[in-house]
Design goal:
mainly alpha, Alpha-Beta Plaits, about 0% strand, ATP-binding
């Protein structure tokens, strides 16, 4: 899951999932570098396994992931 220390944050807002996905960039680092070079993955991604950032796929998954990171692992 992680090859180095990580910071987990919960981002909230209207339409936050698609907005944050746009900020992160395409999952594929090579695509991100080519089509979205100013996104987090375009700048910081190394490989598709080390792609710099995780973003949920849906608001429902986001709720589950938030519970996991901040309640189960805490």
């Amino acid at each position: 899951m992680s090859s180095a220390p990580l910071v987990a944050i919960e981002v909230r807002g209207n339409d936050i999932v698609p907005r944050f996905q746009s900020f992160c960039g395409p999952f594929d680092v090579h695509v991100a570098r080519e089509l979205a070079p100013t996104t987090l993955r375009g700048i910081y991604g190394h490989t598709n396994m080390q792609n710099a950032v995780h973003c949920t796929d849906s608001p429902e998954d986001g709720s589950l992931e938030t519970q996991f990171f901040f309640r189960v692992l805490a």
